[in-house]
């Protein structure tokens, strides 16, 4: 038996118990190691080789889980077998994830694993072993009915889903179509400045658009015309945020390029703080 948050299955219809101290998160979960799949790595859209941290096999209480998903048919990044990597779910992967995890370790006392875990909703009940789930480029995501049902069950049991880097009305409609299969009965709403998720660690009232790496060359924060940033969410019946959308922003790039002096520090600073707030909220609500 191991003490690891990442391995503890979500209990049916209730959230796991977590004990938190702000700004630190201190968690202890008694778990069965056999229940989860071991670390695995796939080719990314941008990186086929990226060095593994020396401590990548060390168990930890928190793991950054990245959702693997099928793409809509046609369009950029939708070619190949999504189950083998190299499609849109692997944008910025694994560099963004590992840069962000270094920031989590530096800025908090969360015991974070140094590597991410790709999650396939079709892998039996594996998703229930990972209480945090992140997806990028969801404006090209096309969940099957079975995957949507699994994701809803995951969220209803206490899981948390963060989505990022999708732009413009067309991509929003594609994303909303997948999410309507997950929650046909729950609206997506704008996060109010007073929402606790924006104040769980950092006070994030003064948010601004976080651009992708193209900003280095163009100076434009928007990836499309007239695309102001939005921070949106889905709530459960008890008022808990279960899913977030950083729409018309690219937090993944803000982590990925945090070590590049050409990419402005203020963007990475906000992108990291937003995700740390979401983790803290997810682990304590």
Termini distance? 26 Å
Q: Strand count, sense and closure of the main sheet?
A: 5 strands, mixed
Average pLDDT rating: 88
CA-based shape = globular
Question: What Rg is obtained from the alpha carbons, in whole angstroms?
Answer: 17 Å
Q: What sequence of helices (H) and strands (E) makes up the elements?
A: EEEHEEHEHEHEEHH
What are the low-pLDDT stretches, counting only 5+ consecutive residues below 50? 1-34
Task: Report the portion of residues in β strands.
Answer: 5-15%
| Helix-residue proportion | 10-25%
* Helix-strand makeup class: alpha/beta
Number of helices: 6
Question: Largest sheet, order of strands side by side?
Answer: 5-6-9-8-7
Would you count the extended β strands for me?
9
Write the layout of secondary structure elements.
Elements: E1 2-3, E2 30-31, E3 65-68, H1 95-107, E4 117-120, E5 132-136, H2 145-156, E6 160-164, H3 168-182, E7 189-190, H4 215-218, E8 230-235, E9 241-247, H5 251-256, H6 265-284
Parallel strand pairs: 3-4, 5-6, 6-9
Antiparallel strand pairs: 1-2, 7-8, 8-9
Helix pairs in contact: 2-3
């Amino acid at each position: 038996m191991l003490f690891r948050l990442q391995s503890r299955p979500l209990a049916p219809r209730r959230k796991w118990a977590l004990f938190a101290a702000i700004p630190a998160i201190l968690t202890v979960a008694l778990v069965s190691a056999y229940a989860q799949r071991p670390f695995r790595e796939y080719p990314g859209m941008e990186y086929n080789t990226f060095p593994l941290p020396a401590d990548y096999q060390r168990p930890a209480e928190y793991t950054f889980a990245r959702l693997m998903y099928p793409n809509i048919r046609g369009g950029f990044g939708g070619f190949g077998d999504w189950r083998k990597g190299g499609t849109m779910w692997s944008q910025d992967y694994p560099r963004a994830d590992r840069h962000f995890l270094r920031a989590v370790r530096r800025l908090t006392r969360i015991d974070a694993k140094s590597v991410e875990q790709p999650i396939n909703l079709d892998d039996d009940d594996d998703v229930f072993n990972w209480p945090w789930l992140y997806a990028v480029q969801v404006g090209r995501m096309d969940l099957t009915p079975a995957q949507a049902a699994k994701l809803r069950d995951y969220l209803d049991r206490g899981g948390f889903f963060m989505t990022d880097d999708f732009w413009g009305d067309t991509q929003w409609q594609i994303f909303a179509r997948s999410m309507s299969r997950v929650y046909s009965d729950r609206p997506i709403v704008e996060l109010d400045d007073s929402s606790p998720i924006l104040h769980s660690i950092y006070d994030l009232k003064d948010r601004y658009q976080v651009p992708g790496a193209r900003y280095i060359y163009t100076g434009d924060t928007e990836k499309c015309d007239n695309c102001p940033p939005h921070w949106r969410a889905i709530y459960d019946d008890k008022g808990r945020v279960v899913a977030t959308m950083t729409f018309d922003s690219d937090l993944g790039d803000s982590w990925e390029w945090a070590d590049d002096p050409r990419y402005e520090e203020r963007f990475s600073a906000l992108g990291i703080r937003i995700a740390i707030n979401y983790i803290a909220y997810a682990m304590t609500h």
